[in-house]
Design goal:
The complex is a heterodimer of chains A (about 375) and B (about 60).
Chain A lengths: L1 H17 L3 H5 L6 E7 L18 H8 L2 E7 L5 H10 L32 H6 L4 E6 L18 E4 L11 E3 L2 E4 L7 H14 L6 E6 L20 H23 L6 E7 L21 H4 E7 L8 E3 L3 E2 L3 H11 L47 E2 L1
Parallel strand pairs in A: 1-7, 1-8, 2-10, 2-11, 3-4, 3-7
Antiparallel strand pairs in A: 2-9, 4-5, 5-6, 8-9
Chain B lengths: L8 E2 L15 H15 L4 H6 L1 H4 L3
The chains are: A alpha/beta (about 375), B mainly alpha (about 60).
Chain lengths: ~375, ~60
């Protein structure tokens, strides 16, 4: 297996030769806006740029060609709630002491609990640095106070607070129910409109937009104009509408002249469920074989990320929070050294501290079912 | 599904995780298991207790 190690080392050296150093990146003059677009239950193989023949995703394909496409981007759980807890906090959900939030558990409308106040979300961290923050779409980290988005650093919330197959399905604006049950046919379109409105109202203030679409989680719903169009059936229609949504968000950034000041991330919370494709990977949602946890991962930041990069470096959703903090902290106090980090990935985008002696490897044993790690290219 | 028997896949040639090499590569499995256990010990006590069989204390 030694050749695997050699292969990894070669990849890292190649990447380092091309990429700007992390210090070059963090010395960027402006505090960048951050947009994280997160879709629900979409597979590794459902986008054109990840090999789908049935589903057309020209906007995401273009986003990838203009930025970085990650081929080993991992969610740290194969199901919704712990995935989202980790994305929002940079920590494994199993560390949070809430039984309903890890392993095979997700939160239900009957649950009174949720993300504890002792956790710091990326929204709260960025808000403390002057960012406007919005969560649009699926939260699924608790729908009652003090677990809601507006209790966790988001200035604004619009969406169904948990999964779209749960009853009741209230559409909420901040703390108020505005529609019940939510009309899901128009959900993707309305989330997109809300996101664009938020971007356009940002003015000169930096912002963090967490756009967490409910689709393509079942029940599948698409706008009339997208229905019956895809070779991938209704699932394909739904993904193609999500692709349209990404295109609209990127257009809005360009219209507002924020294109080069905004990092846009795209991924999915876990693998595909009933429909959808995990591509060449084994397993689906709920499993920690790669089909359950390896997701499309696309990052675009014109002027900072060279176009057309593809990286197989293992990166995970728990890397997002520390990455965002470093990018967004840098420009308001250049005199302060960036918080010391022990590891910097060859993508130039991922910064994260690891416990000494803990490498990257995958495990699907016991609690570690929801904490995949990968070491070189070996998994156990 | 709770898998307590380790499985090992060579992702460079077996992206689909179809060929379990755990029996052929016991040293790799042992090395990775050591790392899993080290990581597990950083988790809250109740999580460790739920995985006592992994830690070999039950």
């Amino acid at each position: 297996m030694s050749r695997l190690t050699i292969r990894s080392l070669a990849a890292i050296l190649t990447a380092l030769a091309v990429w700007p150093s992390p210090h070059q990146i963090v010395s960027a003059q402006r505090r960048p806006n951050i947009v994280f677009i997160y879709v629900d239950d979409m597979g590794y193989g459902d986008l054109g740029c990840y090999g789908s023949k049935a589903i057309k995703t020209p906007n995401l394909d273009r986003m990838a060609s203009e930025g970085l496409r990650l081929t080993s981007f991992y969610s740290v759980s194969p199901i919704c709630t712990p995935s989202r807890a980790a994305l929002m906090t940079g920590r494994y959900a199993a560390r949070m002491g809430i039984d309903q939030m890890h392993l095979a558990n997700v939160l239900f409308p009957t649950d009174k609990t949720g993300l504890p106040q002792s956790e710091t979300t990326v929204a709260r961290a960025l808000k403390a640095r002057g960012y406007s923050t919005a969560c649009i779409g699926k939260w699924h980290l608790g729908h009652l106070s003090p677990h809601r988005p507006i209790d966790h650093g988001f200035d604004y919330y619009f969406g169904i607070p948990y999964s779209n197959d749960m009853t009741p399905s209230p559409l909420m604006r901040n703390a108020e129910v505005i529609e019940e049950p939510a009309n899901q046919d128009t959900l993707t379109r309305r989330y997109t409109e809300e996101a664009i409105r938020f971007i356009e109202q940002a003015n000169s203030k930096p912002f963090f937009l967490y756009l967490a679409h409910h689709m393509p989680h079942i029940p599948l719903h698409a706008s009339v104009r997208f229905r019956g169009k895809s070779a991938g059936g209704l699932y394909g229609d739904v993904v193609e509408e999500l692709d349209w949504s990404v295109g609209e968000v990127l257009k809005a950034l360009k219209r507002s002249s924020l294109d080069r000041d905004t990092i846009v991330f795209f991924s999915s919370d876990n693998g595909p469920w009933y429909q959808g494709s995990a591509g060449p990977l084994r397993g689906r949602k709920g499993w920690t074989y790669d089909g359950g946890v390896r997701e499309p991962g696309i990052v675009r930041w014109p002027g900072h990320i060279p176009p057309g990069r593809v990286s197989d470096e293992p990166v995970a959703t728990i890397d997002f929070f520390p990455t965002a903090r470093i990018f967004c902290r840098s420009s308001w106090d250049n005199s302060r050294p960036v918080r010391r980090i022990s590891t910097c990935s060859s993508t130039g985008l991922t910064f994260r501290r690891r416990a000494p002696g803990v490498g990257r490897f995958m495990s699907r044993v016991g609690i570690f079912r929801d904490t995949p790690r990968r070491r070189d290219n070996r998994k156990t | 599904v709770r898998l307590v028997t380790p499985e090992l896949y060579d992702m460079t040639v077996d992206l689909g995780e179809s060929y379990d090499l755990a029996a052929q590569q016991p040293k790799v499995v042992a090395d990775l298991k050591t790392r899993v256990l080290a990581a597990l010990r950083t988790f809250p006590q109740e999580i460790q207790e739920a995985n006592a069989e992994l830690l070999g204390v039950r």
